[in-house]
Amino acid sequence: MAANSRTTARKTTARPARTPRELAPDVREPDDDVTAAEAQELEATGRHITVELCGEPVRAVPNGAWPVSAQRRLREGDLDGFMAAVLHEDDYDLYVELDPTLDEFNQFVEDVSDLSGEPQGKSRRPGGSSRRTRRR
To answer: What's the pTM?
Structure first.
Protein backbone atom coordinates (compact mmCIF):
# COMPACT_ATOMS: atom_id res chain seq x y z
CA MET A 1 0.00 0.00 0.00
CA ALA A 2 1.39 3.41 -0.93
CA ALA A 3 1.89 6.10 1.67
CA ASN A 4 -0.53 8.99 1.60
CA SER A 5 -1.50 11.85 3.89
CA ARG A 6 -3.78 9.59 5.96
CA THR A 7 -1.29 6.82 6.54
CA THR A 8 1.93 8.76 7.15
CA ALA A 9 2.61 10.30 10.52
CA ARG A 10 3.17 14.02 10.64
CA LYS A 11 6.26 15.33 12.29
CA THR A 12 5.79 18.55 14.17
CA THR A 13 8.37 20.64 15.90
CA ALA A 14 7.39 22.42 19.05
CA ARG A 15 8.08 26.11 19.17
CA PRO A 16 9.77 27.41 22.28
CA ALA A 17 7.43 29.42 24.49
CA ARG A 18 8.00 33.15 24.30
CA THR A 19 6.96 35.72 26.85
CA PRO A 20 4.86 38.76 25.85
CA ARG A 21 7.93 40.96 26.44
CA GLU A 22 9.90 38.93 23.87
CA LEU A 23 7.07 39.41 21.40
CA ALA A 24 6.74 43.16 22.11
CA PRO A 25 7.61 45.51 19.27
CA ASP A 26 10.69 47.73 19.24
CA VAL A 27 10.64 51.05 21.08
CA ARG A 28 10.02 54.25 19.18
CA GLU A 29 11.08 57.62 20.49
CA PRO A 30 8.22 60.01 21.38
CA ASP A 31 6.91 62.06 18.46
CA ASP A 32 3.97 64.42 18.83
CA ASP A 33 3.29 64.79 15.09
CA VAL A 34 2.32 61.21 14.18
CA THR A 35 -0.53 60.97 11.69
CA ALA A 36 -2.87 57.98 11.36
CA ALA A 37 -1.06 56.89 8.18
CA GLU A 38 2.32 57.08 9.92
CA ALA A 39 0.91 55.14 12.87
CA GLN A 40 -0.23 52.38 10.52
CA GLU A 41 3.24 52.28 9.02
CA LEU A 42 4.72 52.05 12.52
CA GLU A 43 2.36 49.19 13.30
CA ALA A 44 3.51 47.37 10.19
CA THR A 45 7.13 47.77 11.25
CA GLY A 46 6.23 46.66 14.79
CA ARG A 47 6.90 49.81 16.80
CA HIS A 48 5.22 51.66 19.63
CA ILE A 49 3.26 54.85 19.17
CA THR A 50 3.23 57.70 21.68
CA VAL A 51 -0.10 58.59 23.29
CA GLU A 52 -1.00 60.81 26.21
CA LEU A 53 -2.30 59.28 29.42
CA CYS A 54 -3.37 61.82 32.06
CA GLY A 55 -1.35 64.46 30.21
CA GLU A 56 1.86 62.38 30.21
CA PRO A 57 3.30 60.75 27.07
CA VAL A 58 3.43 56.93 27.15
CA ARG A 59 4.46 54.43 24.49
CA ALA A 60 1.86 51.85 23.51
CA VAL A 61 1.45 49.10 20.96
CA PRO A 62 -0.98 50.12 18.15
CA ASN A 63 -4.37 48.50 18.69
CA GLY A 64 -4.10 46.26 15.64
CA ALA A 65 -1.05 44.62 17.21
CA TRP A 66 -2.57 44.06 20.67
CA PRO A 67 -2.13 40.44 21.70
CA VAL A 68 -5.30 38.39 22.10
CA SER A 69 -4.38 37.80 25.74
CA ALA A 70 -4.36 41.58 26.33
CA GLN A 71 -7.81 41.93 24.75
CA ARG A 72 -9.06 39.07 26.93
CA ARG A 73 -7.78 40.87 30.04
CA LEU A 74 -9.58 44.02 28.93
CA ARG A 75 -12.87 42.12 28.48
CA GLU A 76 -12.42 40.55 31.92
CA GLY A 77 -11.83 43.97 33.49
CA ASP A 78 -8.16 43.38 34.34
CA LEU A 79 -7.03 46.89 33.35
CA ASP A 80 -3.62 46.57 35.03
CA GLY A 81 -2.88 43.33 33.18
CA PHE A 82 -4.08 44.88 29.93
CA MET A 83 -1.88 47.94 30.35
CA ALA A 84 1.11 45.75 31.26
CA ALA A 85 0.70 43.96 27.93
CA VAL A 86 0.04 47.08 25.84
CA LEU A 87 2.37 49.70 27.31
CA HIS A 88 6.12 49.73 26.90
CA GLU A 89 7.70 48.13 29.97
CA ASP A 90 9.40 51.41 30.93
CA ASP A 91 6.05 53.25 30.89
CA TYR A 92 4.07 50.79 33.02
CA ASP A 93 5.44 52.25 36.27
CA LEU A 94 4.29 55.70 35.13
CA TYR A 95 0.80 54.26 34.49
CA VAL A 96 0.70 52.87 38.04
CA GLU A 97 1.89 56.21 39.42
CA LEU A 98 -0.68 58.20 37.42
CA ASP A 99 -3.55 55.92 38.53
CA PRO A 100 -5.93 57.06 35.74
CA THR A 101 -9.68 57.25 36.15
CA LEU A 102 -11.94 55.17 33.92
CA ASP A 103 -12.63 58.22 31.75
CA GLU A 104 -8.89 58.81 31.31
CA PHE A 105 -8.37 55.12 30.50
CA ASN A 106 -11.16 55.23 27.88
CA GLN A 107 -9.59 58.37 26.38
CA PHE A 108 -6.26 56.51 26.16
CA VAL A 109 -7.89 53.62 24.26
CA GLU A 110 -9.62 56.09 21.90
CA ASP A 111 -6.36 57.95 21.28
CA VAL A 112 -4.54 54.70 20.47
CA SER A 113 -7.37 53.76 18.10
CA ASP A 114 -7.27 57.16 16.40
CA LEU A 115 -3.51 57.07 15.94
CA SER A 116 -3.59 53.46 14.79
CA GLY A 117 -6.21 54.24 12.17
CA GLU A 118 -8.38 51.33 13.30
CA PRO A 119 -11.47 51.71 15.48
CA GLN A 120 -11.92 49.37 18.42
CA GLY A 121 -15.02 47.24 18.62
CA LYS A 122 -17.05 45.21 16.22
CA SER A 123 -16.77 45.64 12.49
CA ARG A 124 -19.82 46.93 10.71
CA ARG A 125 -21.65 44.42 8.60
CA PRO A 126 -22.04 45.05 4.88
CA GLY A 127 -25.16 46.87 3.77
CA GLY A 128 -28.13 44.90 2.54
CA SER A 129 -29.01 44.51 -1.08
CA SER A 130 -31.27 47.12 -2.61
CA ARG A 131 -33.09 44.37 -4.52
CA ARG A 132 -35.96 42.44 -3.10
CA THR A 133 -35.20 38.85 -2.25
CA ARG A 134 -38.57 37.51 -3.31
CA ARG A 135 -39.48 37.46 -6.98
CA ARG A 136 -43.04 37.79 -8.10
So the answer is: 0.55
